[in-house]
Structures are given as structure tokens and as C-alpha cells.
Amino acid sequence: MPARALTVLLLLGVIVVPSSATAAPAPAPEAASGASAGAWGPPLDGDLTVTRPFERLPHPYAAGHRGVDLEGTPGGPVLAAGDGVVVFAGMVAGRSVVSVDHPGGLRTTYEPVDPSVAAGQPVTRGSPIGTLTAGHAGCPVHACLHWGVRRGETYLDPLALLRPPRVRLLPLG
Description:
This protein is mostly beta strands. 10% of the residues lie in helices and 36% in strands. The chain has helices at 3-16, 19-22, and strands spanning 23-25, 50-52, 68-72, 77-79, 84-92, 95-102, 106-111, 113-115, 122-123, 128-132, 143-151, 154-156, 167-169. The strands form 3 sheets. Strands 2, 3, 5, 6, 7, 9, 11 and 12 form an 8-stranded antiparallel sheet that branches. Strands 4-10-8 form a 3-stranded antiparallel sheet, with no helix packed on it. A hairpin with a 2-residue loop joins strand 5 (84-92) and strand 6. The two termini are 21 Å apart.
């Protein structure tokens, strides 16, 4: 086989080989792995303003911020970030919380939210799950939504759900 034909076949092989063999996800969108970034939407209407970012913690028991705080409007709708099933809607340590399990082992949490859903209820991306209430500790504006996501016991940056994953080719050999 001529060298030129072999080169073309090798290049085509790089393109059609399953992505797990040729691509590596960027560190930030790890939360979206196992789920299409297009399957996710923001938990609030309008442009998102982060008032407190996610903190990647050195170990599971470290103190820190395991989600993002987003500026919102008291009484405004809080939306399911993706399709799933509500697993909890109620009070936790004096705060009103909604948690949704999603395919791929992800769980999103939203607080403080006056829930309009109940445990066991299916939800779709963008559907209202409650209204935002004021009173989130450390919020520098009228109201903040604390939005978190985890896979198992590992907390991830929820904003990564909204960014498409970056794909980069790795060198052969």
C-alpha cells in the first residue's frame, strides 16, 4: 500500500475511533461527563450572575462551598436543570431544599426554594420546581440560589453542566 494511502487511512482512523481513545475532556466540564451538555439548562431565567463560585476542595470533609450561588429574584421561578426525578423537597437544617436525581448518576440541589414539586415527581429540563426565597446566608443581593451537583459523594461544578465539553485530540503512540 502506498505511503500516501496509509497516511490517509491513519488519519481517518483517528477521526472515527471512539472518543474515549482519542479525546480527553477538559478538567472543568467533568460534571457533564456521561450526560450531554445540551441536556442541561440554567436553573434561573435570564443571564446568570455568580455571586459565589464553586470551590474544588482538597478532600470530602474540607470546609468550603460545594456549589455556586446565583443572583436571583425573590419569588422568581427555579427551574430543573435537567430531566430527572425529584428525590427530596422539604426542609434541611432550617433551609428549604429541592434535590433531583438525573440519568448518569448526577444529583442537583437547589436552595432556598419554596417547592412546587414533591418527591417521586418526574421533571424536565426548564420546568419549574419552586420559587426562590430570600435568606441564603452570605448572599450579597436580594436573593441567591445555591445550586449544587454531585455524582455519588463527589461534588462537581454545576456551571460545567452548561458548558459544552472541550474535546482535544491526543497524539498517536
